[in-house]
Amino acid sequence: MSGKEYRTITDVKGPLVFLNKTEPVSFGEIVQLRLSDGSMKNGQVLDTSDDQVIVQVFEGTASIDRQTGVKFLGDVFKLPVSKGLIGRILDGAGRPRDGGPEIVADEMADIIGAAINPYSRQSPKSFIQTGISAIDACTSLVRGQKLPIFSASGLPHNDIALQIARQAKLVDSDDDFVVVFCAMGITAEEYNFFVHDLERTGALENAALFVNLADDPAVERLITPRLALTAAEYLAFEHDYHVLVIYTDMTNYCESLRQIGAAREEVPGRRGYPGYMYTDLAMLYERAGLVKGKKGSITQFPILTMPGDDITHPIPDLSGYITEGQIVISRELHQKGIYPPINVLPSLSRLMNAGIGPGKTREDHKSVSDQLYAAYAQGRELRGLVAIVGEDALNERDLQMLKFSDIFEDQFLRQGRDEDRPIQEGTLDLAWDLLSNIDTKFLVRLEQKWIDKYHPTDKKEE
Amino acid sequence: MSEENGVIYRISGPVVTAIGIAPRMYEVVRVGNEGLMGEVIELHGDQSVIQVYEETSGISPGEPVVRTGRTLSVQLGPGLLTQIYDGIQRPLPKLEETMGVFITRGVDADGLDLEKKWEFNPAIKAGDEISAGQIIGIVQETETIEHRVMVPPGKSGVVKSVESGSFNITETVCKLEDGTEIAMMQEWPVRHPRPFIQKYAPDVPLMTGQRILDFLFPLAKGGTAGIPGPFGSGKTVTQQQLAKWSDAQIVVYIGCGERGNEMTEVLDEFPHLIDPNTNTPLMNRTVMIANTSNMPVAAREASVYTGVTIAEYFRDMGYNVALMADSTSRWAEAMREISSRLEEMPGEEGYPAYLSSRLAEFYERAGRVQTLAGDDGSVSVIGAVSPPGGDISEPVSQGTLRIVKVFWGLDAGLARQRHFPAINWLNSYSLYPQALDKWYRDNIASDFPEVRTEISTLLQVEAELQEIVQLVGSDALPIDQQLTLEVARMIREYFLQQNAFHDVDTYSDLKLQYDMARAILSFQEEAKKAIAGGAQLEDVVNVPARTDLMRGRFEKGYNDKIGDLVSEMGKQISATMGAN
Ligand SMILES: Nc1ncnc2c1ncn2[C@@H]1O[C@H](COP(=O)(O)OP(=O)(O)OP(=O)(O)O)[C@@H](O)[C@H]1O
Ligand SMILES: [Mg+2]
Hints:
The structure holds 2 protein chains of 2 kinds. Chain A has helices at about 135-140, 155-165, 190-200, 225-240, 250-265, 275-285, 315-320, 330-335, 350-355, 365-390, 395-415, 425-435, 450-455, 455-460, and strands at about 5, 10-15, 15-20, 30-35, 40-50, 55, 70-75, 80, 90, 105-110, 115, 120, 125-130, 140, 150, 170, 175-185, 205-215, 240-250, 290, 295-305, 325-330, 340-350. By secondary structure, chain A is α/β, with parallel strands linked by helices. Chain A is elongated, with a radius of gyration of 25 Å. Chain B is of the alpha+beta class. Chain B folds into 4 domains: about 5-70, Beta Barrel (Elongation Factor Tu (Ef-tu), domain 3); about 115-185, CATH 2.40.50.100; about 200-430, P-loop containing nucleotide triphosphate hydrolases (Rossmann fold, 3-Layer(aba) Sandwich); about 450-580, Bovine Mitochondrial F1-atpase, Atp Synthase Beta Chain, Chain D, domain 3 (Bovine Mitochondrial F1-ATPase, ATP Synthase Beta Chain, Chain D, domain3). At the A-B interface, strand 5, strand 11, strand 12, helix 6 and helix 7 of A face strand 1, helix 1, strand 9, helix 4 and helix 6 of B. Strand 11 of chain A pairs antiparallel with strand 9 (about 100-105) of chain B, so a sheet runs across the interface. Bound molecules: adenosine-5'-triphosphate and magnesium ion. Adenosine-5'-triphosphate sits at the interface of chains B and A. The site of magnesium ion has 4 residues of chain B, from helix 3.
């Protein structure tokens, strides 16, 4: 470790500082920069050799000159962690932002986070009821899952995330969730919206916030989620909490990643994003889950806005390749005035099968959910056809599917911002009610035994 | 200057440059004070470029780099089965013991348990002349799999003595006249294919129990298949279905740069799932490699080679091995990342220029061979591909499709409709049917190929009719074409769709698949007759017995009932003629 201050900066490029130096500096080491006006900046070593060190400066390189003093702190980035994080608001680099005291560390935790040994994981399988029918019935969430919200600008993803944070509960235990909220480059207005809602419901006392806003340094965003996840891991695996991590907006995070790549003159991957973006994102998203021998869990809700509403854009695309499904918000449904405007067709929860069924939600859940999908998908497809040939050209089956798709949007998807529907009586029974608008012979996804047991036939005969 | 020991000059992520050391290409070296494992991937001037298999943060220039003289190898012998490894064959349970639940670094672990004793039963005797690849003894490794201990490649001679009884895998079990000692364990460098006598053309299907695969787009034992598809379309589920139900004797499953939870799922499930071919837990025949997306990329790059080498080793014992790699795109990305750190000239989309040759070399390690021992063994390779945005015009998909003989194209649209497996029947293909048809005729039904052709023709015709329906609606079509649409719908909903998560539907044997296909054709025949006899299409389609036939596939014992269900359907359809 060297406490020496170097004044050997040769180049400054974008967020990067290049310097020559005399003693060995380790890869990933934390760097402190002292500017001529006495102000301080922080950075991290991205590349190191006997001749040259490249430092990424979190606060941006404005005002850095050749006289700037550079000190290598001899350690990688660590966050002071303790239970005292709960109820606190920190900035994007982990410093108090709420006027409160510094966090008294029980432990200094490396923010990069080691990979969980796949052999040491436990399969997530406890159903989390969000009270939102579209999610509970069709893309059921389980504890320890990473399920992003794919949205786009101007859509109510924040309301949905908050509604989930408010209503989320386990059906098979009384354990509560602690929320770790991580803001990356969102506007002050969005941030206030979150904070007010968390205050309103008293959840703020049970939350830890890491906040980097739109006017905060862009490069800092690369560490903010790592801080949040480090806090989450500590709370979950040292103190048995069930942690719900909400981070928004992943798109801003990826933009910062692209900026660093460009400054390093790396060969870019698709649309200018670094080729290693998949791995980089995985290092965040994979920090969800449950591990053997620990009671706590980390469930992640990353929010990202799809540039140009395009789901094939690298940010949603690479996310989708890592997460365990996605909840897709639809502009079309939003414009129809439906809240929550969740398009269940491209949405998916891969861990759903493990979390639903007898003893968890209900025995018919899988069947019902398959049938809802199938009928709604067919109905929606027929809308296009009807626009051309009119309803007359449809046979009985198609007509019923078409009608169902409207009912489904209007009665199943649509619900109040504070409406908390229980899975059985609220969501699944409603689904049967709505499905009874279709002749049973067309309900090919429903197993006969569930039809016998749950189909509200009497209702149809009225 | 000591050529054995050098120092670190530069560190850039997983790539470390050393000076003062003169290793061979692909030699394993120890890097830094913690002795992290690395592999030399480039030499230029006095610099040796090393990819490091563990996280490099906190390491400084000036720290030591030490040669080992070995190339990256795996340990082969009893104890591979049921094991789960990282990309460089470190057993994950061992890592958990030493590191806890998070993978830190700097820990070495043997791929095999060197202490454990196995019961060795010799298959040779003193005086025998033996050569490389020959089986010298048997160890019952798991309940179902006997491990055939072989003479390591490169060794041969006359047996001086051979042991019998309980030994660990490094103890000598056989001595040759020239003093050579042979133990149960051998090592093999992962980047080199293991030797065999010759390759044969595959002519036996790898049966997977998945209807669309076995019936329409079959893979042969020793063949290669690619499964490209966008996220969430079913690559992993399909791979896991193959790992569960295919009639390979050994399965090597490589989770390459994918999710941790998916490996846990396999670990949780396989010990409880019963192999329909042997009636013992599937775990007994499985070796897993798990180098998940958040584990070091260099080890991800190696994971595919580690896996295929283990597969070849079992092949050499005369087994049919199936290897799944999920996902080869993540492997290619690891190559890309390392190549870019080396500042190599990038090819298409930043991938190294050698991408396609690496892909080809990998799939070339599949095949049905005559082993050195003269037996018949095979490695079938099934690679998932994850094209960005689902667009298969990208380099990894294209590089794969040029080589593999079977293409199972997953389709986002089908997945969205929850038509699973979401394999697009119109653009998928298999080049094996011709080679396999004789086998089908001999073993399943003499008209098997003809039935398959009829089914796939119906699906083609449907696609054409759908274009018309999109314009005018289905009611505008003549009655026979409407019937064709109904038959095709039946193929899709009853035959092609198969729920991997349903206890019964998850697996159909080939005979049942054939019976189901025949049931559809028999519906078509009966319906045609009835309609010609004045029945309404609507009535024909809606006979309850057809629904029973279709729903029946979810019930146990369907194989025995399907015949009766079909005749009942026939009766009811005939009866619709009199209804008007
Ligand atoms: N045969 C099947 N039966 C039932 N469901 C299926 C089947 N295949 C896929 N699915 C459904 O699709 C989901 C996604 O499948 P899978 O995880 O295999 O996708 P993938 O192509 O591997 O995606 P990624 O590239 O992101 O890993 C599954 O969680 C499951 O719900
Ligand atoms: Mg997958």
